[in-house]
Amino acid sequence: MHRVKHPPVRNKIDLTDPGQVRAWTRRLHVSADALKTVVGKVGNSVSAVTKEIELQRVNHQPCAVPPVPNSISSPSAEGELPAPV
Fold it and tell me: What are the two backbone dihedrals, phi and then psi, of residue 57, each rounded to the nearest 5 degrees?
């Protein structure tokens, strides 16, 4: 007798399937450990995991506006122009 293999549920991540773990880590650009941590936190729903990973990326990104160098922001002596950047 052959055992029937059921197709995977498309909107859930199965961490017991190495193929799915590999595919989702590549798709979401995270490590397997990070994926397992997020699934443990929000559940195995693809939409919930994707949303949580995007939120983590947004919260951990550095400031989008670069800091102004001190030579431009500091007041210059009278009659002097700031140094070209």
Answer: -65, -40
User: Rounded to whole angstroms, how far apart are CA atoms 51 and 68?
Assistant: 33
Whether the CB-CB separation of 67 and 57 falls below 8 Å is answered with no
Task: Give CA–CA dist 26/51, Å, rounded.
Answer: 16
* Nearest-10 Cα torsion for 57, 46, 19, 58: 0
Structure pTM?
0.62
Averages of pLDDT over runs of 10 residues in the chain (85 residues) are 77 93 94 95 95 91 56 54 62
Of the candidates 19, 22, 16, the one whose C-alpha atom is nearest the C-alpha of residue 44 is: 16
